[in-house]
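Minutes, structural biology subgroup

Action item carried over from last meeting: produce the structure token record for Tetratricopeptide repeat protein (Microbispora hainanensis). EB confirmed the sequence was re-checked against the source entry. Recorded below for completeness.
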Amino acid sequence: MDVDIWAWVGGTQRELHEAGNTGLAMALGDVPAQALEGRFTQLDVVAPAIAQHAETLEKPWLEFFARYWHLLGRVGDRAIGAAALEDAVALADFAQRDDVSDCPAAPGAVEVLAMTQANTDGPGYAETRLAALGAVLDGVGPESLAFSGLATQYVAALIDAGQAAEAVAYAEAAVERLRGAGREASWELGAASARALLAAGRADDALAALDASTGFKPDDPVAKGRRETLLKSQVLATLGRIPEAVEALPDLDVIGDHAREWVEWARTVGMLTEGIANTWQLGRILRQWISYFESVGGHRARFELALTAGHLAVARQGLWQARLLADYAEAAIASLRATEGLAERVAELRAAADAAKELAPPGPRDELVAYFDAADGSTADPERWVGWLWPLSGTDLEATRRHTTTLGFLGYAPVGADLYWKTIVEDGDPAAAGDDDISYLTGLLIEAGQDERVETLAARLPEIRSHLALARLHRARERWEQTAAEAEQAVAHGSGLEARRLWSGAVQQLGDNSKAAEILKPLLDSGEGEEEDVWRLIVLSTAVEDWATVRAAGAKLGMPIEPGEGPIEEEWHLVRVILPAPDGSQREVLAVRTGPATARLAIPQPRGMEYNAGDVVVIDPRPLEPIPENEQERESFVIPFAGVTMLRPGGYTSWFFDGAAPSEDEWAEFNEVLAERGWPMWVYSDENYRVTHPATGEQLPGVFGWIAIPPTVRPAELDAVLDDVTEQWSHPLAWLDLAREVGIEAERHERISKEYGL
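Output recorded by EB:
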């Protein structure tokens, strides 16, 4: 993104503020951070909303800005490939529109399109990327901040095209062009140069280039640390400096959430088998990564990961897994555009698996199930057990259960589903199978995405089991009406707890809390339910204010609720309630718990929120964090709970105040006056907030926050109280919106805001 675009962003934010679009203005400035910091849940909500709003406002640059950062958040750290290609092409087309092409950020559309194509199939799209990037680079000079990112992608495309020497030369020339323009290369361009040198067989030079670029400013400062150490580990491993490479390699918990690094990390680990623990846990994680790339269209990545994981499996004698991974790699070839030499690499993996020696089982074949059951669950190697049980699977039911269960655990649910299907359905009578077998087979089929088989299975089951199997399927696919219908039928025909839970949960999803609670009520008397069912009944009954049921369920749990009728409005203890914010993030609001599943919010919220101080909300009584075991820590710990729904709005209205911080005595009086009236106040500024002295220009400590007043208090009363309590302060406090609302001295507050730079 060019520096001019940031000046434009600031100007656009001011325009939006002045037009009353405060929420949009605030969200706009946070979108790049959401993309770079990995706040993707928030980004996926906010960016499309901004783009849609920008289209309505006829602001194409704003729309491009939101769409660009959203796409970068998808194809950058998340490494989404084919699943984002259509959007990337659409953004590139949008950037060529007459009313967008002059935007300083417009070249970024070609950059993210190239990234998306690289994620899909780097070598397969290499020539396409080079052509598009080259055309843009012809019109973008090194004085533009867009140049470094485009050049980085051009180097990556040259490497994927097998032109390592050309990539080295281009990277070095780009760095020199930037230096000639008085600018420094980005760290990403320096890293691309190191990768080019490594691809050219110049590992020593690659290490020197990487060390030389370490001080360069990164385009993605959040990712620089892990990406740099990972690349350094790869270079050191190539040089045979194994202990240093192991030391440099980022831990799994560092790169585990960053798909962009997975292929390179796995490839590096494959070179470090002497220094890295090559375990079944590693194999399970790599299988999860392969599944991820299958889901997002990272075709080249899943091919490379399958081969790397396969060779690691051979090294630890997980030969059944190596053969399956060879099949997965071979299947991925059909989705790739450049396939030269790939079939041969798959054949090499198969040959390695065939040449390796199978591990001997721990006992006689007819005793393996007993050995399996006796194994220590915390230390046993499930990967080895899959291999040992495989000869029995499909012929011995007990062995098949354990074998397919373990296959599913290791990430091979479709394989386990095929084996279990053959045993239960093809070679047996599912109507005669046990409940556990049907339940587990249904789960395997659902996990494997074999929905048609679930329907076929249901058709061969007795009515109760048939409805239950279909309810499980519909629940997994979030088809709530169908879930409710099938689960209701299962309950009607005598099914037990699971069917009632499915029915109630689906009805709740459909918005009928009252009916969802009625479905669970019989569990109070039958004793069939568990504690979690009673808590769920409490939440549902609270949401519809069925206080008699809440009291009955609370008594079932032994809760000390005061007897009586009507709402439960007690004063229990402080809690933290986690609630959604309009920008897709979450807010933590201090509240007082007033009952088993209710809390009254105690903190004023900014305008634009759907809740405020005084509101009573329903909470999920399951703590979101464990309560500390240490007694001293427990005394200061405030339990966080998830907010479920609004129960009873308090009708409070928040008003903003801002200005220079008063003295301690002045502030104490301010707090006391508000507390006496029961008007909640909360400071949102921190110790770093500063305002400007209008006479000297000195930076003064500042304070801003919100005050909430109940519906029985007129805004004019708050204005009068604030005016009175701050009258003698050394520096005035401003409450501009409130002054405008009541029509008193708005000009004075405007002047204060301007003079103090509020």
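Discussion: The chain is about 60% helix and 10% strand.
Next step: EB to file the record with the rest of the batch.
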